[in-house]
Write a structure and sequence with these properties.
By secondary structure, the protein is mostly helical. It folds into two domains: 54 residues, Homeodomain-like (Arc Repressor Mutant, subunit A, Orthogonal Bundle), CATH 1.10.10.60; 121 residues, Tetracycline Repressor, domain 2, CATH 1.10.357. 66% of the residues lie in helices and 5% in strands. It has a two-stranded antiparallel ribbon with strand order 1-2. The protein is elongated and about 60 Å long. This is DNA-binding transcriptional regulator, AcrR family. GO terms for molecular function: DNA binding. It comes from Paractinoplanes atraurantiacus. Keywords: DNA-binding, Transcription, Transcription regulation.
């Protein structure tokens, strides 16, 4: 999409510029990403950035929303798997791959973006935590259905299981950002899957 104002194009692709901003926030975190870093990567000046995206915080929120829509599409797709075990495995495997993509910074924007905080009174960290919690709740809801259907053993706590899965995912994200390779992340997933309960009737 090309951003327009009063019928006149601004001369840059808003989505492409947003993708470049994502990488800056991803590499430097919200606090560490300066306006100079952002506008330079996006190929625009500050007035154009403010006009198209609002202030830095709004730009970051839009970057996270785009990241969730595109880079984390695999999380939504995993929920469609027929069994809880397959849901969890597909999510964690795809996550390990996403954390180590050659065309993206290592790790995860939702973790890296809020590692350094301060001047915003923690609002960005809270925003990112709420975003991650939304994904955890969606997974918990899917696992609750699995309990009802007998796919997970009776008595399984879907919220606790979803929290466990997200803890593995977030831990892998931290390790990926520190340089741990894809094979090692998948080895962690191998171990994590052993803890996933399975109904005796499950395939």
């Amino acid at each position: 999409m090309t951003v327009k104002t009063k019928g006149r194009p601004r001369g840059f692709d808003a989505d492409e510029a947003l993708d470049r901003a994502i990488e800056v926030f991803w590499e430097h975190g919200y606090e560490g990403a300066s306006l100079t870093d952002l506008t330079s990567a996006m190929g625009i000046n500050r007035p154009s950035m403010y006009a198209a995206y609002g202030n830095k915080e709004e730009l970051f929120r839009r970057a996270v929303a785009r990241y969730a829509e595109h880079d984390m599409a695999y999380a939504r797709e995993a929920l469609a798997e027929p069994t809880a075990y397959q849901v969890i495995e597909r999510f964690l495997r795809a996550n390990a791959d996403a954390l180590t993509r050659a065309d993206r910074p290592a790790g995860c924007l939702s973790i890296q973006g809020g590692l350094a905080g301060g001047s915003d009174n923690g609002e960005v960290a809270q925003f990112l935590a709420a975003s991650r919690l939304g994904g955890e709740r969606a997974l918990s809801g899917r696992l609750a259905r699995a309990v009802e259907e007998g796919d997970l053993p009776a008595g399984t706590d879907p919220a606790a299981l979803a929290r466990y899965v997200m803890t593995v995912s977030e831990g892998n994200a931290v390790h990926a950002a520190a340089g741990v390779d894809r094979a090692s992340l998948h080895a962690t997933v191998d171990l994590a899957m052993r803890a996933v309960p399975r109904s005796p009737e499950a395939p």
